[in-house]
Design a protein that fits this description.
alpha+beta; 5-stranded antiparallel β-sheet; 49% strand; elongated
């Protein structure tokens, strides 16, 4: 009986591990692609409250011709020009520049 119980527990553990790992992999390789012409670039200051003090942080936004907007890091903001065609890949919180055409 003990042998049957240990085989059953091993099978259930493997089953649960497989499904948790498959969900992790699905989320890990999920990415979105943003492409289009840049209509407008905008740099704003975001105010962050840290206890009793306030800190400002720059926030860079690109507006696309289809109405979408995307917050990007400073390096991509500098390379992108208004009116140029751009292709960006977003995976979780990381944004990667794939292509820029003027």
């Amino acid at each position: 009986m003990l042998k049957l119980y240990s085989i059953f527990c091993t099978f259930i553990a493997g089953f649960l591990l497989f499904f948790s790992w498959s969900g992790y992999l699905k989320e890990e390789f999920n990415s979105k692609e943003f492409r289009g012409n840049i209509v407008k670039k905008e740099r704003t200051e975001k105010v962050i409250s840290i206890g009793s003090s306030f800190v400002t942080e720059p926030q860079y936004t690109l507006f696309f011709e289809n109405g979408k907007k995307l917050h990007v890091p400073n390096a991509i903001y500098i390379k992108a020009k208004e009116g140029s065609h751009i292709v960006l890949m977003k995976q979780k919180d990381n944004i990667t520049l794939k292509q820029i055409r003027d």
